[in-house]
Amino acid sequence: MKTYQLMATAASGIEAITGNELKKMGYNVQVENGKAYFSGTEADIITTNLWLRTADRIKIVFGKFEAKTFDDLFEQTKALPWEQILPMDAEFPVSGKSQKSTLYSVPDCQAIVKKAIVNRLSEYYHRRTRLPESGALYPIEVAINKDEVILTIDTSGSSLFKRGYRSEKGGAPLKENMAAALVMLTNWFPDRPFYDPTCGSGTIPIEAALIGLNIAPGLKRSFPSEEWNIFEEGLWDRIRNEAKAAASFDVKLDIGGSDIDPHVIAIAKSNAEKAGVADYVTFKQLALADFTTTKEYGTIVCNPPYGERLSDQEEIEILYKEMGQVFRPLKTWSKYILTSELLFEEFYGERATKKRKLYNGRLRTDFFQYWGTRPPRIKKELDTNDVKEK
């Protein structure tokens, strides 16, 4: 198989988590702002699309060069071997972006890249008329930053946060990959309780269940690259079947979510059913102020209404004060709250153990972390065979 330079894109603030996911999968990774670079074969393109929980897209980095003139952009784009990936009938729309660069007109850059690729493919495939573009989809992007051009081909299509299980959403929903990132930033282990008391449409508990059961998040969706001819026949099916076999449905999970709105609880239950985790997550209608538990050493992760999501500032203050009153007595529980409210700690009534800056879409937020006490270590009894005779 051929080796490609690949790029996993991610939201600002969680690219390091995406990088760690890739490292655990065995890749050498270079993390930059919003990106994690790695190398891989066609099989790796499939594997990362199916398994990465926090990434947005997997892209092939097809060209990298400096360009300060449109001629430079055209000639260097045309010099790339596009025919190695794009067949004669490929549909290849070109999107673009430009920052702090001489070539600042994005529409012009897109048009020039498109023309250069058309010229290259027309010469290679001996076409005198227009290319049909009636075949598989190959989304191409030209991204220019400080005159450095990166040309990529998107293997994912729609963002990887679109898992395929969330057909209905509550108000201001959290994206699935951001929800997975929040879970992965905690100290939760699948053998401990997990709870979201403001669960909305259930995204955070569902993502926790997918992690706990080792279910690949991309199993229930499709990708445009499935139609590409660079993949040997049957490769997608084989790797998908391997991913399905890796799930551990015999794991016992204690995951729950609640919300005051009965409508979103119904949506959460429906989403959990579609995700295949309905038997592992319990949802119920409950006001945050009424949440109590006798369980210990659990983890709470929540994305309560805030800022742009709830216009009434007085309601926000009341909610966050209730949160402090309910959560603070749970000394063995770790609590993680995502909000853009700068005065959250003041309303909550306690300073966070740690804060982490994250972006929920374009909105700057903080992930306030309150770490609970650790469970006592279980003393290992010495086997008589382990005791050395003096």
UniProtKB/TrEMBL annotation:
Keyword Kinase appears in the UniProt entry: no
Statement: the UniProt record of this protein carries the keyword RNA-binding: yes
Domain THUMP: 44-155
GO molecular function term, any single one: rRNA (guanine-N7-)-methyltransferase activity
Gene3D superfamilies: 3.30.2130.30, Vaccinia Virus protein VP39
InterPro entries (UniProt xref): DNA_methylase_N6_adenine_CS, RlmKL-like_Mtase, RlmL_1st, SAM-dependent_MTases_sf, THUMP_dom
Keywords: Methyltransferase, RNA-binding, Transferase
Stretch forming the signal peptide: none
PANTHER family to which the protein is assigned, alphabetical: RIBOSOMAL RNA LARGE SUBUNIT METHYLTRANSFERASE K/L (PTHR47313), RIBOSOMAL RNA LARGE SUBUNIT METHYLTRANSFERASE K_L (PTHR47313:SF1)
Name of the protein in its database record: Class I SAM-dependent RNA methyltransferase
Organism: Trichococcus shcherbakoviae subsp. psychrophilus
